[in-house]
Amino acid sequence: MSRGGGDCPANGILDDFKYDVHDEYGPNLKVLPTNHEVKELQTILRDRNTSRSDFKFYADRLIRLVVEESLNQLPFSKCTVTTPTGAIYNGLKYERGNCGVSIVRSGEAMEQGLRDCCRSIRIGKILVESDAETHEARVVYARFPEDIAGRKVLLMYPIMSTGNTVIQSVTVLKEHNVLEENIILSNLFSTPFAAKAVVHAFPLMKILTSELHPVAPNHFGQKYFGTD
């Protein structure tokens, strides 16, 4: 397929959604800076004509951009290194004690992107089931590093429509004594409704998404894993 993924309608429900992020959602929700590359990736992932192989390829690209920006929210400390020529360089390094947690199943699509950026990082998992009619979410499985209470946690979940799944997942993390301010949600697409719900529930948690839009591409997990 062409990189554009198909014709784009001149107008309709998926026209650009305008908002003031800081005023409406507070300082802890950040949207990936939108340039032509990011917008193209979002367009391809929303296009119903995109093949699964192309979908996965471009999804991995967007995941990598979001993960890298999410990692930029983690704490750094100053360090000094010696270059091969003997020069002294004043730089930065990640502070120790970071881990990832993916919300199964769609969150697992983001694990490789995190591993590509952080070699040997430990990754836990949360499985949340939602009622098809009420959308009420409940956690049925959770596995974390034993010392997760003392770590910064990158929580991975690509699509937020209502925010219920993320709210339940963060609640479980807090039950394991993870501080709310030590959690960073790494997300690809969120509706404004979901973003407001999560920000209201956990105002100290950082959220990084690539787009806020009233229509979320809920086909993401099925398309990515080939189960549609």
Q: Average pLDDT, to the nearest integer?
A: 90
Kindly estimate the percentage of residues that lie in beta strands according to DSSP: 25-35%
Numbering strands along the chain, what is their spatial order in the largest sheet?
1-11-9-7-4-5-6
> What is the helix content?
25-40%
Oligomer: single chain
Task: Please provide the ordered H/E string of secondary-structure elements.
Answer: HEHHEEEHEEEEHEEHEEH
Instruction: Report the top-level CATH class.
Output: Alpha Beta
Cα gyration radius (Å): 18 Å
InterPro entries: PRTase-like, PRTase_dom
GO molecular function: GTP binding
Protein name: Uracil phosphoribosyltransferase homolog
Main location: cytoplasm
What are its keywords?
alpha/beta; 31% helix; 7-stranded mixed β-sheet; 3-stranded parallel β-sheet; Uracil phosphoribosyltransferase homolog; nucleotide-binding; 7 helices; PRTase_dom; single chain; 25% strand; 228 residues; Rossmann fold; disordered N terminus
Quick overview:
GO terms for molecular function: GTP binding. It is built from 7 helices and 12 strands.
Please describe the topology of this protein:
Elements: H1 21-25, E1 29-31, H2 36-46, H3 52-71, E2 76-82, E3 88-94, E4 98-104, H4 111-117, E5 123-130, E6 137-143, E7 152-156, E8 159-160, H5 164-175, E9 183-186, E10 189-190, H6 192-201, E11 206-209, E12 211-212, H7 220-225
Parallel strand pairs: 1-11, 4-5, 4-7, 7-9, 8-10, 9-11, 10-12
Antiparallel strand pairs: 2-3, 5-6
Helix pairs in contact: 2-3, 3-4
